[in-house]
Amino acid sequence: NKAKNGGICVANHTSPLDAAILSYDNCYSMIGQRHGGFLGFAERVLDCTNEHIWFERGESRDRQMVVNRLTQHCSTDKNLPVLIFPEGTCINNTSVMMFKKGSFEID
Asked: Which pLDDT score is estimated for 37?
């Protein structure tokens, strides 16, 4: 059940290492909140390797930008699959979170 190019891979977000673990056997484009500090540095490094979608959670205009970029990215099988953690936060296996609807609002 490997993700195919131009597709979307949905996974639970239980650890900050989830993306690295899932990338062990497949390359992905990432979608996620823009961070500062070390995670922000890692995002900037990832941007040098592939097209990723980063957003500011507090910016309402970013929601439509994400939908547009995700739709465009998935329109061709030449792009890597997009890895999405729809809970919107890392839960560390302490509970089940409701998925955020934004990641599922594409045609």
From this structure: 92
